[in-house]
């Protein structure tokens, strides 16, 4: 087993809605090793998206400790968390979250611009990413000129351009047809085969079953943590060439 990449201890998240309290996460203890492929599953309102937001440093817990690569990131300043998020965490969302006015290449380059990477290095890495994801002929197209599958490939390229330790995918096939969704999952799984930790949030049982480990959430608590040594998918995962 690889060293723990993510360690959550006693995590609680409470939201105040008027006079009531909603316990989105309850005393959660989870450890995820580097290189794992994990599906976070559960019905709507179970806490799975809240968990993803906390792991992605988009939200803070009310109690508990979160360690990422052995570092306590719970109490970092907003600026420090943003730096960790930029360098170590990649996001893939159901709705793509591409910047409408930017081209595919510019969307992919955006994390590097925010990180202050030199233009020459940005151009080289964007060109390589466009080639890896079969987007060479779409580099100058805006999101509204791309298909759903192409937009999600741009989103995955953007999520991985900083070579993160973990990719967080929130219902990554939710807006795609079956064939395109299968293609997107193969891309994500290929990244996992190459050592990137992959955490997928989904309510789709067949999608969750692809992962080697399933965390089943209910009412903000972890109800079941099950693993299997092998996952069965129709063909080997390969990145497009």
Low-confidence stretches: 230-241
Instruction: Assign the CATH architecture.
Output: 3-Layer(aba) Sandwich
CATH domain fold name: Rossmann fold
* Cα gyration radius (Å): 18 Å
In short, what is this structure?
The protein is of the alpha/beta class. The chain is built from seven helices and ten strands. The protein has one domain: P-loop containing nucleotide triphosphate hydrolases (Rossmann fold).
Secondary structure: elements and pairs:
Elements (H helix, E strand, L loop, with lengths): L3 E14 L2 E14 L3 E5 L6 H8 L7 E6 L2 E2 L5 H11 E5 L10 H11 L4 H14 L15 H13 L5 E5 L7 H16 L3 E6 L2 H4 L4 E6 L2 E7 L14
Parallel strand pairs: 3-8, 3-9, 6-7, 7-8
Antiparallel strand pairs: 1-2, 1-4, 4-5, 9-10
Helix pairs in contact: 3-4, 3-5, 5-6
Protein name: ABC transporter related
GO biological process, one term: response to antibiotic
Family: Belongs to the ABC transporter superfamily. Macrolide exporter (TC 3.A.1.122) family.
């Amino acid at each position: 087993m690889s060293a723990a990449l993510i360690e959550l201890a006693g995590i609680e998240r409470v939201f105040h809605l008027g006079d009531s309290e909603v316990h989105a996460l309850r005393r959660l203890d989870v450890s995820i090793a580097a290189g794992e492929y994990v599906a976070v599953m559960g019905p709507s309102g179970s806490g799975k998206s809240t968990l993803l937001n906390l792991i992605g440093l988009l939200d803070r817990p009310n109690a508990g400790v979160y360690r990422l690569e052995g570092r306590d990131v719970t109490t970092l300043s907003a600026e420090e968390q943003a730096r960790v998020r930029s360098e170590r965490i990649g996001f893939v969302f159901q709705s793509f979250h591409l910047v409408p006015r930017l081209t595919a290449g510019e969307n992919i380059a955006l994390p590097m611009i925010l990180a202050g990477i030199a233009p020459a290095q940005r151009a080289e890495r964007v060109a390589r990413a466009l080639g890896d994801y079969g987007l060479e002929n779409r580099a100058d197209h805006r999101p509204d000129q791309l298909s759903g599958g192409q937009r999600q490939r741009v989103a995955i390229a953007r999520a991985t351009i900083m070579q993160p330790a973990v990719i967080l995918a929130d219902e990554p096939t939710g807006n795609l047809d079956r064939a395109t969704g299968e293609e997107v999952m193969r891309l994500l799984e290929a990244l996992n085969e190459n050592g990137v930790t992959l955490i997928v949030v989904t309510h789709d049982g067949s999608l969750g079953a692809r992962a080697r480990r399933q965390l089943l959430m209910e009412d903000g608590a972890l109800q079941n943590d099950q693993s299997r040594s092998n996952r069965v998918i129709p063909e080997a995962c390969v990145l497009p060439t």
